[in-house]
Amino acid sequence: MTATTALEIVLPGAVEPSELQVVRRELPAPGPGRATLAVEASGVSFAEQQMRRGKYYDQPPFPFVPGYDLVGTVTATGPGVDPGLVGRRFAALTKTGGWASHAVLDAADLVPVPDGVDPAEAETFVVNGLTAWRMLHRVAGVRAGQTVLVHGANGGVGSTLTQLAVLAGIRVIGTASPRHHEAIRALGADPVDYRDPDLPGRVRELAPGGVDAVFDHVGGPGIVDSFGLLAPGGTLVSYGTAATRDESGSSRLPVLKLFARLMVWNALPNGHRATFFNIWAGSRRRSAFRARLAADLGAVLALLAEGRLTAQVAARVPLERAGEALELAESGTVTGKVVLVPPSASAR
Questions:
Q1: Looking at the structure, do residues 107 and 218 belong to the same domain, yes or no?
Q2: Whole-Å CA distances, 214 to 54, 127, 149, 204
Q3: I want to staple 169 with a disulfide (CB 3.0 to 4.6 A). Which of 109, 144, 160, 207 is the partner?
Q4: Euclidean distance between CA atoms 11 and 70, whole angstroms
Q5: Coiled-coil regions in this chain (predicted)?
Q6: Are 306 and 286 in contact (CB under 8 A)?
Q7: Which percentage of the chain shows pLDDT scores above 70?
Q8: Does residue 285 lie within any of the structural domains?
Q9: Average pLDDT over residues 238-265
């Protein structure tokens, strides 16, 4: 089989978005158990924003190709892989390597995308949908009739969390800047200005008895307020440290401080629970991890195919303009997720 020429976006170091590099390399034929995909969509998430600063907790050494997740169509299969996969569309959680025109992945890591689903729309629900589904249903275990607080309800994970919660009969209070409040109401949530100096007071007006779960990607000092807003038996789910995004110093220190705080809170006899969500938890038990991935992501993509979830695609940007896409995602001005799509004809 002839080699495939791939266009890739390389992160050479801790650089500005404009300094990302566009390179080409030859992809060999897929080896045993592997498959080659023509990438149709790859996401721009907070993980890549941190990686380009050198601040993501366990990122690889520079240089590398970022791209936490992707959707693509199989173009070739290696030995031991069903050749019937060729021509079919799949989603994959990659952590790195997704910002490319082609990717070679383990076939066992691929999750089928339902027929008729737009690849960019499916992409918005790979890492975001998996994160939201697991935090809501597997970690917090929120039930119909309960109330949750979603920080950043206009973002990729936040908007997905909001939709999944509303579908489950759960009331949602969502924080965001006022320009996003109309969009949050359209999702079925009650918006609150995240910059309000009395944010906890505004939330308590809407939920006097507290909320049953808080989903907090911000971290920093505000997480104390998040914990204080819990109702008896409530759960705080932390899944990021966006508040420390621009701070200098170790990429691990903010996360370690957060872990220590959550451990202390869990030791208190107040009936509350605090936990940090990691999408890769349990990945060392590869077969079990893959089974859960297929089940959970499959459930989310099925809801999308049924029209019960609405994809929040903030923008579709050609792959070779990944720097612009990253700047847009970091601007905080968009609702949903910025998605990289195949290179424009001039870049091929």
A1: no
A2: 28, 19, 5, 13
A3: 144
A4: 17
A5: none
A6: no
A7: 95
A8: no
A9: 73
Domain end marker among 254, 276, 298 = 276
**pLDDT for residue 2:** 46
- Same structural domain for residues 216 and 161? yes
**What confidence tens digit (pLDDT) does each residue in 141-164 have?**
999 999 999 999 998 899 999 999
Residue 158 identity (one-letter amino acid): G
- Rounded distance between C-alpha atoms, residue 321 and residue 287, angstroms: 36
* Backbone dihedral region for residue 230 (phi beyond 0: left; psi -120 to 50: alpha; all else: beta): beta
Are the C-beta atoms of 329 and 338 separated by less than 8 Å? yes
Tens of pLDDT, residue by residue over 46-93, are 899 999 999 888 899 999 999 999 999 999 999 999 999 999 999 999
The stretch 178-201 carries a mean pLDDT of 96
- Same domain assignment for residues 198 and 165: yes
Query: Where does the chain show beta strands of DSSP type E?
Result: 4-10, 21-27, 34-44, 69-77, 89-93, 102-106, 111-112, 147-150, 171-176, 190-193, 211-216, 230-238, 273-276, 313-318, 337-341
Q: What is the pLDDT of residue 1?
A: 37
Is it true that the peptide bond before 32 is cis, omega within 30 degrees of 0?
no
Same domain, 57 and 161: no
Q: Residue 36: which CATH number? A: 3.90.180.10
b (16+ CB within 10 A) / e for 80-100: ebeeebeeebbbbbbbbbbbb
CA distance 237 to 141: 11
Claim to verify: residue 131 and residue 263 sit in the same structural domain:
yes
What value does the mean pLDDT of the chain take?
A: 93
State which of 223, 258, 276 marks the end of a domain: 276
* Owning domain of residue 266: 127-276
Total of domains in the chain? 2
70 and 191 in a common domain:
no
Domain-located, residue 158: yes
